[in-house]
């Protein structure tokens, strides 16, 4: 999953809908289609596949915070 963010680095945190921490990492974005994006591969910080569900992402980008929701669907 690619999440756009115009920043040179930041902290990406992913929480389950129950606000349990699923993933956290300090990242530098990669470039996709001319945009800087942060990447989440659908795995928890332990490396296990995250369950299907709604997740809340939080970017700590220096002096600002960006939040949003994403749906992860596994077949």
Question: What's the quick description here?
Answer:
It is built from no helices and 7 strands. The chain has strands at 2-4, 10-16, 21-27, 30-32, 35-39, 53-61, 64-72. Strands 3-2-6-7 form a 4-stranded antiparallel β-sheet, with no helix packed on it. A 3-stranded antiparallel β-sheet has the order 1-5-4, with no helix packed on it.
Question: What's the topology here?
Answer:
Elements: E1 2-4, E2 10-16, E3 21-27, E4 30-32, E5 35-39, E6 53-61, E7 64-72
Antiparallel strand pairs: 1-5, 2-3, 2-6, 4-5, 6-7
Description:
- It contains no helices and 7 strands.
- The protein is globular, with a radius of gyration of 12 Å.
- It has strands at residues 2-4, 10-16, 21-27, 30-32, 35-39, 53-61, 64-72.
- The strands form 2 sheets. Strands 3-2-6-7 form a 4-stranded antiparallel beta sheet, with no helix packed on it.
- The model has no long low-confidence stretch (mean pLDDT 90).
- A hairpin with a 2-residue loop joins strand 4 (30-32) and strand 5.
- With 75 residues, it is mostly beta strands.
- The two termini are 16 Å apart.
The H-and-E topology, N to C, reads as EEEEEEE
What's the story with the biggest beta sheet?
4 strands, antiparallel
Strand order of the largest sheet: 3-2-6-7
Assign a percent range to the helix content. Answer: under 10%
Q: Structural class, judged by helices and strands?
A: mainly beta
- Mean pLDDT, to the nearest integer, reads 90
Molecular shape = globular
Strand content: over 45%
Q: What radius of gyration results from the CA coordinates?
A: 12 Å
Task: Give me the number of helical elements.
Answer: 0
**N-to-C CA distance:** 16 Å
Low-confidence stretches at least 5 residues in length (pLDDT < 50)?
none
According to DSSP, the number of beta strands is 7
């Amino acid at each position: 999953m690619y999440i756009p963010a115009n920043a040179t680095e930041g902290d990406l945190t992913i929480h389950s809908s129950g606000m349990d921490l699923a993933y956290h990492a300090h990242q530098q974005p990669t470039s996709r289609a001319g945009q800087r994006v942060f990447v989440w591969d659908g795995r928890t910080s332990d490396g296990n596949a995250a369950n299907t569900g709604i997740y809340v992402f939080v970017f700590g980008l220096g002096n600002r915070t960006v939040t949003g929701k994403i749906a992860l669907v596994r077949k």
